[in-house]
Design brief:
By secondary structure, the chain is of the alpha+beta class. The protein is about 40% helix and about 25% strand. Strand 7 and strand 8 (about 210-215) form a beta hairpin. It is rod-shaped and about 170 Å long.
Length: about 325
C-alpha cells in the first residue's frame, strides 16, 4: 500500500513539473516575442542592373518634403588659381614725388634759360656764359625728369604710370581705400588673352573681390616664373593689407557648357558629393557628382541630365537608404 501511495506521489510530482515547465516556456516565448524589434518595411530595392533604388509613394514623398526640379543649361568660363600678393605702394608715392620735383625743377630751369637767352639776344645785360650755364641746368633737369619717369615705368608698369589720375590713385592706395595686387600665373598655365578682371580672395572659401587688371607686371618673379600682371582693387572692402597673400582665380578664355546642379541638391556621404534623381513616379536613385566647376547657382556639370533631381528632402532620402541598407545586411 505504501508503495502505491509513493508511486502516485511521484507521478503527480512529475506531472506538476511538466506543467510548470510548459507554463514557463510559454512565458519566455511571449517575452521574447514582445522584445523582438518591429522592422519597418525597407524602402531600398535592387534595380535590374543591381543598382540601389528607393521607392516612396506619393504620400511618403509629401511627408518627407521631397521636391524635384529639372536642371537648367548653363555655361562656365574655365579658371585657374594662382598666388597673388598685395603690394606695398609706399614706393609709388616716393617715385611720384621725385618725378613731380624733377618736373618743377625742369620747368624752372627752362624758364631761367629762356629769360637769359632773350636778354642776350636783345643785347641787354646777359653774358653768353650765363646763357650757357642756364641751358646746361635746363638739360640736366630734363634728364632728371626722364630718369624719374623711367623709374615709374620700370617699377610700376606702363598702364599704371600713364594713368591720368595716378596722383589721386597713389593717395587712395596709401589710405588703403584701394589695393594694388600682383598675380603670378604658374609657368604651366597660360591665358589666351589678358583678362580684364580677376577674382581675389583670402582663402578658397572666402568671399571673392573683383579686381581690374591693369596690365602685365613690369618684372618677373623668380619664385613663381610665369605670366604676371598687376590688378587694382578700387574699393578695398576686404581691407587687403600690403604684404598679405591672396588666391586669384583667372579666366583662361573659352567656355564650357553643361547643366547647373543646385547647391540644395547635393548631399555628402563618405567624402563624396551625391545627388538623388527621380527615375520614376515613386522611385529614386543616388548618383555621384563632380564639383569641379563652381557656378553662381551651384555647380556646372558636363553632359545631359534628363531626369529631375531632388532639391528638397535629399538628406531624408540618404537616411532612408542607409537605414535600409543596414536592414538588408541583417
Amino acid at each position: 500500500m505504501k508503495r502505491i501511495i509513493l508511486l502516485v506521489v511521484l507521478i503527480a510530482g512529475a506531472v506538476a513539473l511538466v506543467f510548470v515547465y510548459r507554463e514557463m516556456r510559454k512565458e519566455r516565448d511571449a517575452e521574447a516575442q514582445a522584445e523582438a524589434p518591429v522592422l519597418a518595411p525597407s524602402r531600398v530595392e535592387r534595380g535590374p542592373n543591381g543598382d540601389v533604388m528607393l521607392r516612396f509613394d506619393a504620400a511618403t514623398q509629401a511627408r518627407l518634403g521631397i521636391i524635384t526640379t529639372n536642371l537648367q543649361a548653363g555655361s562656365f568660363a574655365p579658371e585657374v588659381t594662382a598666388p597673388a600678393r598685395v603690394l606695398d605702394t609706399a614706393g609709388l608715392t616716393s617715385t611720384l614725388n621725385q618725378l613731380r620735383s624733377a618736373e618743377i625743377a625742369s620747368a624752372a630751369a627752362k624758364a631761367d634759360f629762356e629769360r637769359k637767352k632773350k636778354l642776350f639776344d636783345s643785347g641787354q645785360n646777359a653774358a653768353a656764359s650765363a646763357v650757357e650755364l642756364a641751358e646746361a641746368a635746363m638739360k640736366q633737369q630734363q634728364l632728371a625728369t626722364v630718369s624719374a619717369r623711367q623709374s615709374l615705368f620700370t617699377g610700376w608698369g606702363m598702364q599704371l604710370a600713364t594713368n591720368e589720375n595716378i596722383a589721386d590713385l597713389a593717395n587712395a592706395l596709401l589710405r588703403r581705400e584701394a589695393a594694388l595686387v600682383r598675380v603670378d600665373l604658374p609657368l604651366t598655365e597660360r591665358t589666351s588673352v589678358l583678362p580684364q578682371h580677376v577674382a581675389l580672395s583670402a582663402g578658397f572659401a572666402a568671399t571673392r573681390i573683383v579686381a581690374e587688371v591693369l596690365g602685365p607686371a613690369p618684372t618677373t618673379d623668380s619664385v613663381v616664373p610665369g605670366h604676371s600682371f598687376l590688378c587694382l582693387v578700387t574699393t578695398n572692402a576686404a581691407q587687403f593689407t600690403p604684404g598679405s597673400t591672396l588666391i586669384a582665380r583667372v579666366a583662361t578664355g573659352g567656355g564650357t557648357n553643361g547643366v547647373v546642379m543646385p547647391r540644395d541638391a547635393i548631399v555628402r556621404h563618405l567624402g563624396v558629393a551625391w545627388t538623388y534623381t527621380k527615375t520614376g513616379a515613386d522611385t529614386f536613385a543616388r548618383r555621384s557628382v563632380s564639383l569641379e566647376f563652381e557656378h553662381p547657382d551651384g555647380w556646372l556639370l558636363n553632359g545631359e541630365w534628363t531626369e529631375p533631381v531632388v532639391i528638397a528632402g535629399a538628406q531624408s532620402l540618404l537616411s532612408e537608404e542607409l537605414k535600409g541598407g543596414i536592414q538588408m545586411k541583417d
